[in-house]
């Protein structure tokens, strides 16, 4: 067998099955007669990374819906097949060169019929545009102009993208996995991939920041493909496929591999409405009987709510304690490699500076040469900057880890520290930097100069500041809205002030007075339990301060934290 171009592929062989009964043996002889006349093994190609249709499994063997379907067709038709999976552009080229006889999964298109012939479809393929979560809504073909779209090289989507969206900037890659990983890493704008493989790989690779944002193409017919002139072989696969469809075996394979991903699930909303209607009818029928125990029921409800609040408080406390333990362990594991980087990078920098004179002399004597795969004339400017960037990034990792560890550390709750408000705010901003960057493109911070310290617990005030900033991020409806954080000294009252202002959706007047109530929240559907601002209010009151809110619906909210400054020489801070 010729195995050119299959460096990363795998092959497997299916053999004929010999029935035991006389009638089955006779049927087998009839079906197997054309194959017995020729000893050639049919070479079937496929994509090595197109789950759940076809892929290489963890044992290094071909697997998936297409693979099992091909083996089942070979069984009922008495054929011997050898499966060879590789990169799509390679197996397609090998089919054209005659090194493969048939491809088990290919999308039909009128353009492809110039070179290929297709069997009746055994599936329909939908293709989706994927984007990073929160960066795009429903996207059409017209909106792809000038945008970078990652697509599998030589696939049907690569062909149709160039035809139907010629102004899009195609970025070809070898596999769907490459496309999704590249998009998830922050590169390019979209990935155009088959819908089920995209969902399957997103789940298997844990790419939780991706989501489908458009279906710009209609479903495509998906079946077996041969080169022109090989229609006789295609007819045998089509006949086997028809047998499997008529016996229900093809549907069983389809349900096994594709059913779990396509299943829409139970209509919970309709079930809930029906249950509510039934409950209402039952309540109306039992109303007369239940009037006498109304007082008792109200008392039971009141006590149940009290117990539920206590349970939620215990769960939240346990969750925060577990988070602290987790952060401490992760911080220790990150600090080791970070410390190694901070130790070795300065040595590498000095080493390069020592070698620079030798490299320059060689450059002037012999001309340009390659260093690390790039011309030295370029690398001599790049390497110092790269080393400096790595050193800066490693130091940033160390600072963030230290901040997380300090925030998670369980310490005494005494209010006996001398705390710098500006330092607390800076630490809090570093900890929620990712949330800020995802929520807004316009974040500003202004630190008051010469602020006096305050007496209290810096870690607990840091918790309050984090809560205020995160609430501001969650209040924004789009990244173009801004958040402003500022600190100042109120000389007349000898107080410190922190203001967190957002341009978000605002708070309704009837809710503004209830923000400090435990378990009151306007974000119940997003998982909020209403403890953040209540806990923050308690912390601020322990410090002798105030936490006030001013909001206009549709325009934004301003949260103001006021703390008594540490008494001293006031002129130093005015």
TrEMBL record:
Q: Which residues form the Histidine kinase domain?
A: 329-567
Give the PROSITE patterns listed for this entry: HIS_KIN (PS50109)
Q: Which UniProt keywords apply?
A: Kinase, Membrane, Phosphoprotein, Transferase, Transmembrane, Transmembrane helix
CDD domains assigned: PBP2_HisK
The reaction(s) catalysed by this protein are: ATP + protein L-histidine = ADP + protein N-phospho-L-histidine
The leader peptide range reads none
| Transmembrane annotation, as ranges | 271-293
UniProt cross-references to Pfam families, sorted A to Z:
HATPase_c, SBP_bac_3
InterPro entries in the cross-refs = HATPase_C_sf (IPR036890), HATPase_dom (IPR003594), His_kinase_dom (IPR005467), HisK_dim/P_dom (IPR003661), HisK_dim/P_sf (IPR036097), Sig_transdc_His_kin-like_C (IPR004358), Solute-binding_3/MltF_N (IPR001638)
Q: Which Gene3D superfamilies match?
A: 1.10.287.130, Histidine kinase-like ATPase, C-terminal domain, Periplasmic binding protein-like II
Q: Does the keyword Transit peptide apply?
A: no
Q: Show the GO MF annotations.
A: phosphorelay sensor kinase activity
Q: Which domain of life is it from?
A: Bacteria
UniProt keyword Transferase present:
yes
- SUPFAM superfamilies per UniProt: ATPase domain of HSP90 chaperone/DNA topoisomerase II/histidine kinase, Homodimeric domain of signal transducing histidine kinase, Periplasmic binding protein-like II
EC number(s)?
A: 2.7.13.3
Record's protein name: histidine kinase
| Organismal lineage | Bacteria, Pseudomonadati, Pseudomonadota, Gammaproteobacteria, Aeromonadales
């Amino acid at each position: 067998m010729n195995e050119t171009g299959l460096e990363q592929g795998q092959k497997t062989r299916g053999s004929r099955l010999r029935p035991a009964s006389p009638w089955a043996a006779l049927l087998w002889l009839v079906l197997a007669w054309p194959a017995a006349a020729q000893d050639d093994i049919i070479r079937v190609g496929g994509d090595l990374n197109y789950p759940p249709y076809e892929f290489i499994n963890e044992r290094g063997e071909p697997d998936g819906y297409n693979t099992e379907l091909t083996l089942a067709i070979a069984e009922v038709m008495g054929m011997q097949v050898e499966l060879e999976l590789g990169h799509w552009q390679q197996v397609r080229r090998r089919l054209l060169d005659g090194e493969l006889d048939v491809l088990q999964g290919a999308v039909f298109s009128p353009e492809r019929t110039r070179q290929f012939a297709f069997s009746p479809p055994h599936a329909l393929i939908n293709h989706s545009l994927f984007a990073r979560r929160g960066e795009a809504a429903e996207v059409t073909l017209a909106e792809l102009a000038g945008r970078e779209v990652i697509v599998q090289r030589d696939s049907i989507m690569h062909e149709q993208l160039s035809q139907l969206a010629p102004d899009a900037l195609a970025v070809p890659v070898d596999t769907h996995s490459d496309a999704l990983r590249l998009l998830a890493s922050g590169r390019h704008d979209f990935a155009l991939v088959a819908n089920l493989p995209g969902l399957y790989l997103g789940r298997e690779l844990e790419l939780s920041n991706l989501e489908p944002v458009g279906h710009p193409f209609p479903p495509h017919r998906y079946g077996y493909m041969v080169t022109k002139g090989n229609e006789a072989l295609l007819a045998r696969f089509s006949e086997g496929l028809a047998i499997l469809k008529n016996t229900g075996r093809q549907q069983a394979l389809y349900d096994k591999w594709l059913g779990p991903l396509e299943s829409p699930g139970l209509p919970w909303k309709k079930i809930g409405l029906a249950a509510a209607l039934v409950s209402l009818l039952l309540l109306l029928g039992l109303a007369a009987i239940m009037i006498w125990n109304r007082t008792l029921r109200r008392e039971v409800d009141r006590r149940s709510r009290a117990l539920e609040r206590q349970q939620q408080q215990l769960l939240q406390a346990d969750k925060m304690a577990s988070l602290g333990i987790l952060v401490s362990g992760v911080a220790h594991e990150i600090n080791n490699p970070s410390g190694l980087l901070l130790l070795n990078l300065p040595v590498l920098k000095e080493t390069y500076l020592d070698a620079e004179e030798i490299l320059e002399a060689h450059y002037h004597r012999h001309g340009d040469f390659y260093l690390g795969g790039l011309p030295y004339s370029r690398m001599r400017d790049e390497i110092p900057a790269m080393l400096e960037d790595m050193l800066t990034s490693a130091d940033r990792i160390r600072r963030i880890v230290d901040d997380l560890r300090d925030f998670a550390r369980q310490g005494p709750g005494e209010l006996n520290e001398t705390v710098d408000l500006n330092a607390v705010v800076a630490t809090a901003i570093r900890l929620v930097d990712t949330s800020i960057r995802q929520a807004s493109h316009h974040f500003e911070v202004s630190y008051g100069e010469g602020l006096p310290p305050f007496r209290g617990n810096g870690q607990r005030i840091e918790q309050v500041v984090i809560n205020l900033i995160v609430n501001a991020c969650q209040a924004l409806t789009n990244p173009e809205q801004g958040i402003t954080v500022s600190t100042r000294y109120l000389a007349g009252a000898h107080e410190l002030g922190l203001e967190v202002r957002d341009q978000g959706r605002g708070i309704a007047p009837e809710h503004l007075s209830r923000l400090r109530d435990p378990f009151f929240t306007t974000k119940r559907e997003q998982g909020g339990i209403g403890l953040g601002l209540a806990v923050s209010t308690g912390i601020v009151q322990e410090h002798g301060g105030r936490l006030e809110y001013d909001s206009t619906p549709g325009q934004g909210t301003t949260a103001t934290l006021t703390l008594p400054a540490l008494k001293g020489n006031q002129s130093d801070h005015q």
